[in-house]
Design goal:
The chain is α/β, with parallel strands linked by helices. It contains 13 helices and 17 strands. Bound molecules: 4'-deoxy-4'-aminopyridoxal-5'-phosphate. 4'-deoxy-4'-aminopyridoxal-5'-phosphate (PMP) binds near residues 140 and 238. Belongs to the class-III pyridoxal-phosphate-dependent aminotransferase family.
Length: about 425
């Protein structure tokens, strides 16, 4: 039906009048979104966009099984954890069945940030120490304690009163792997040893999202977990971006690195757009935490959120979406590597399943940052949504809803190729 199309200028004027200043927009030509379904989004003018970017919509935008669960439950009951109700138990049991046995306790909150914050509190309660080891360029949340361990959002030379920041684990082009990795490990070991009287633990993403879709080097997490545990610290895996089967071969990123964390932080895809997050942990840590102030969240674990979370798990299982992520992801990597062979400014295609990054180098006329921005904006103009991140925003990020299929992959690769051909002609 006919809808009023509001101009970008009008939106901008209204936003700047009433919304806080620090909000940014995607693309040189921002989009006024109206509707979405599965891997597609529709703007106010009726254009269809292929969403190759939104990793929150794990099972697809507005998936009917999830929206039905939301509507059905919100019509019947919404309350909090101070009552008995089935939804929280059904969901907790289902969610924990996706984890190894030692991760047997779940705390529900309303965002990835709230989950990180809670994980920090728990680490402090369990160890009696305050600082967290984190990785340079990592991001873990927007609360005060989350931002303190998120170098991604820090300005240069800012201090870290509650964090110990380890080096960004990316090999520079001029180093050979073995010597670089040896130095990296030694650097981390020294940091851990120097700070062990203050460190409560380590938090890391198995593949760094904001760091530019960068998988941690093989062996790094295993080595760090050993060092941290040697002095009683806890190991936290931030699975906010990579969890729930997105990596294809693995349900959780920690499996990729063959480690078993003491705590897992969950968010984004967990509610397919509904604000829900969680900390999953061990009985021992849960017991230490219970010695401190009572934990209560007004919304965390409410029946509506739990029904939604459970519906998301059911769709992933019923539709075989983890396998689809593995298949379509492998196909995309293969196709993009084919492109990389033709265009010298693609440095690397990396990631796993439907969590991929294409790192750009300088092109014929543009530096790497300009080239990646051009690529992302031209794809947007071709009605495909992707994003940018990593040092200098040189990495094109691809992390679509897992219903993204082979035909979608072909469209993405073909349009990417079209933009790259244009770049060649500059
Ligand atoms: N951890 C990671 C790895 C994230 O990417 C994010 C969000 N970008 C968060 C935590 C925080 O999640 P939220 O925005 O839901 O608070």
């Amino acid at each position: 039906h006919a809808q009023k199309v509001i101009s970008a200028g009008e939106y901008q004027e209204r936003r700047s009048r009433v919304l806080g200043k620090s909000l940014s927009l995607s693309y040189q030509q921002p989009i006024g979104m109206r509707r979405a379904a599965m891997q597609y989004m529709f703007d106010a003018a009726g254009n269809t966009f292929l969403d190759a970017y939104n990793n929150i919509m794990l099972v697809g935008h507005c998936h009917p099984h999830v929206t039905e669960a939301a509507a059905r439950t919100s019509r019947r009951l919404n309350t909090n954890t101070r009552y008995y109700y089935d939804e929280i138990l059904d969901y907790a049991e289902h969610l924990l069945s996706w984890f190894p046995d030692h991760l047997s306790q779940v705390y529900f909150v309303n965002s990835g940030s709230a989950a990180t914050d809670l994980a920090i509190r728990m680490s402090r309660a369990h160890t009696g120490k305050n600082k967290m080891l984190c990785l340079d360029r990592g991001y873990h949340g927007n609360t005060q304690s989350g931002i303190e361990i998120s170098p991604y959002k820090h300005h240069k030379d800012q201090e870290y009163p509650n964090a110990v920041v380890g080096p960004f684990p990316k090999k520079p082009a001029n180093r050979d792997w073995d010597s670089w990795y040896g130095d990296l490990l030694e650097n981390y070991r020294n940091l851990i040893q120097r700070n062990q009287n203050d460190l409560s633990g380590l938090i890391a993403e198995p593949i760094m999202g904001c760091g530019g879709q960068l998988p941690l080097p093989e062996g790094l997490l295993k080595a760090l977990y050993t060092e941290i545990r040697n002095f009683g610290g806890v190991c936290i895996s931030d699975e906010v971006q990579v969890g729930f089967g997105r990596l294809g071969q693995w349900k959780w990123g920690f499996e990729m690195h063959q480690v078993l964390p003491d705590m897992v932080v969950l968010g984004k895809p967990m509610g397919n757009g509904h604000p829900i997050g969680a900390v999953v942990t061990t009985r021992e840590i849960s017991e230490s935490f219970a010695q401190g102030p009572e934990f209560f969240s007004s919304f965390g674990g409410n029946p509506v959120s739990c029904a939604i979370g459970k519906a998301v798990l059911e769709v992933v299982e019923a539709e075989g979406l983890q396998q689809q992520a593995a298949n379509v992801g492998a196909y995309l990597i293969h196709e993009f590597e084919g492109l990389a062979a033709n265009y010298s400014w693609i440095k690397e295609v990396r990631g796993s399943g439907l969590f991929l990054g294409i790192e750009c180098l300088a092109g014929p006329k543009q530096n790497a940052t300009e080239l990646a921005a051009y690529l992302c904006n031209e794809l947007r103009n071709a009605h495909i949504l992707t994003g940018l991140d990593g040092p200098g925003n040189t990495v094109l990020k691809i992390k679509p809803p897992l219903v993204f299929n082979r035909a979608n992959a072909d469209q993405l690769v073909e349009e990417t190729n079209n933009v790259m051909r244009k770049i060649n002609q500059f």
